[in-house]
Amino acid sequence: MKRAAILLLIAGCGRPSPSPNAMPRIPITVDALRADSIAHLMVQQAFDADARFRNPDSLYFADAEVIANGAPRADAPRFAGIGADGSVQLGSSRFAVTGNYVWGTIQYRWVPPSADKRMVDGWATLVIARLKGGEWRILHVHSSTAATDGN
């Protein structure tokens, strides 16, 4: 037992230490890239439709659950804080994929069409599912905005 512990200690000491200048390796898998690609494409299309107050039914399941600032929404704008016209800037995101589902979170900012309105920051959690034919649809969205000074 004592001999095994000594051998283990010696084996651990024999490895060269990594160079302090070496870049850390970040494991990026095909699944991670695929999830990010699917999610960003669908989210951008959904935000573009929201800013125009259009209902992009081809992006959502018929019975998709959409919650914005705690209230269910069936029509555009489906994401919290999105107003008419303007544009949406996507921020940081994190998505994953398993089989027929992509899920994750994304930060966004609605930028109004004129300077007399405030920009609105929001956060959304999404679940996107693949149909039998291979197409992807949004199954669930939960979005919220930060409280304004008056709230």
Give the structure's gist in a few sentences.
The chain is of the alpha+beta class and 151 residues long. Helices cover 23% and strands 36% of the residues.
Descriptive account of the structure:
This protein is α+β, with helices and mostly antiparallel strands. It has a single domain (29-145), classed as Nuclear Transport Factor 2, Chain: A (Roll). The chain is built from 2 helices and 6 strands, in the order H-H-E-E-E-E-E-E. It has helices at 2-13, 30-51; strands at 60-68, 71-72, 87-98, 101-111, 120-130, 136-145. The chain has a 6-stranded mixed beta sheet with strand order 2-1-6-5-4-3, covered by helices on one side. A hairpin with an 8-residue loop joins strand 4 (101-111) and strand 5. The longest helix is centred in the N-terminal third of the chain and has 22 residues, at 30-51. It is globular and about 45 Å long. Residues 4-12 have low confidence and may be disordered.
Outline the fold blueprint.
Elements: H1 2-13, H2 30-51, E1 60-68, E2 71-72, E3 87-98, E4 101-111, E5 120-130, E6 136-145
Parallel strand pairs: 1-6
Antiparallel strand pairs: 1-2, 3-4, 4-5, 5-6
CATH architecture: Roll
Number of helices: 2
Query: Tally of extended strands?
Result: 6
Q: How much of the residues is beta strand, in percent?
A: 35-45%
